[in-house]
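Hey, I'm writing a tutorial for new members on how sequence and structure tokens pair up, and I'd like a real worked example in the thread rather than a made-up one. If someone can provide the structure for the chain below, I'll link this post from the tutorial.
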Amino acid sequence: MIPRLSLAFVLSFCSVATLSAQQLGNVQTYPSVADTFGLPWPAWMFGHWVWEDESTQESAIAMVDDYLAHDMPVSAIIIDSPWETGYNTFEWDTALFPDPQGMIDYFHSKDVRVFMWMTGVINTNVQPLYDEAAANGYFMESIFPWEQGQPGIINWWKGEGSLIDYWNPEAVAWWKSLMDRTLDMGIDGWKVDGTDYNALLDQVLYSPGNGGIVSRNEYSEAYYRLFHDYTRERLGNDRVITARPIDNYGLGDLGGDVALFAPRDINFCGWVGDQDATFEGMVWAMNSMYHSDQAGFLAFGSDIGGYREDSNFPLARSKELFIRWAQFGTFSGVMENGGGGEHRPWIFDQETEDIYRQLVHYRYQMLPYLMQHSETYYNESRSLMDFFNKTDYSYLLGPDLFVAPFLVEGTSITVNFPEGSNWVYLYDNAQVFTGGTQATLTVPYTEYPVFIRQGTYPLAVADRSIPAAMVHIYPNPSEGRFTLTVDRGFSSATLTVLNTLGQTVITQSLTSFGSAAMDLGHLPKGIYTIRVSDRDDRSVVKRVVLR
């Protein structure tokens, strides 16, 4: 079992969520403030991730800078394939990434973590590395006796190669020495892709190190566990892998061991991938996520907008699909946006940019809520996304957010509200729906069917009695100096600045309204929450990025 969350964390969450004094009293059964969080995953994994299918150092930096310039905070970037000199050398292709250490350091200076894409294959044309491993017996072999005594060959989407034998201690030590080439740069995790399934597809399941045949699931577990365990051994427990949980690739309504990739206990933030850029593709992602929920994976997401490209659209996907998938991705366990074609929201049009910006802000307002409940869900082998069925794929995100995703293009949707509570519409808290009832709603593309359990505060702006538009921050991101504008309507306002752990770093009274020059340049670079509240404890929350 993981130690329970500390009172300090709960109170920091409450300070952002505007809980009542009575509710604060209810959480004081938590351990003392001297306790640590004790969670085996970092808060940043619940933030906003971005990536490109094929990138360069120049394009990766430009992409992150552009998101930040559009007031869309980023917690992580995935450097996807190709980035190496070959599959898989762990050596950077300097034609694409001339200064990888400088790039990683630059992202870290922006409080952006770095995932590296990787598989467990060495291709036959990667010389002399492949021959070295083959000569030393480091590869898995065919299950057929007449083919043994030589490396088993798999055919995967990047060519032909062989799989590392994780039951051979010398092979593991050698593989770790290759991993060190990248780990020495201080990366934050791996995107570990699914070549392990090729061990079954190509019948390469004989392990010379084990002296016998292993199952495909045994091979998968050894593969992912090595990446997770050794990375944490080298760099600390704030490192994670992202890998497929249950992923059927849209080949059928499949779950369980047949579609299982990484082990549940180490895949804290997985993804289901490679869907078409269509509404049908999005529904297939939901199907894999449904089965991942059934298997008890903590958190997972999907490639917003779809991984594959749709040639019917100039940007490789329709605006309508991108918006609906972005909305679904925001209210998933993991929010990650990337794949083939165009995924940058501002390239579509101004409306898409504005919708996406609001979604990213919602995401960070949910972060304390997701962290707070993740411990209990993990210990109980439950997913933060709790699906009700495979018909409408409605689900709870944590205990207090109900989501009814769109499965087709359009604005009309029939919603079946869970029993036991009333449900408040996120985008208009005057709309309250009775649990156990059904309603057909018209939901424009600027909104999404997300409902809050009445009386709870899973988002920092759940109390929307004061519009967020009454507080303005510009520029954002900034070097620490910006202008804060508070519209009239507040009385005796208090300004509170909190860091990503929910700890208060600045509190001051606002005695007048209008524009005020703010200087947070003395604080470390990163993402901060600014809360402006009045004497009635109504509040508005904004996110600021110091870079």
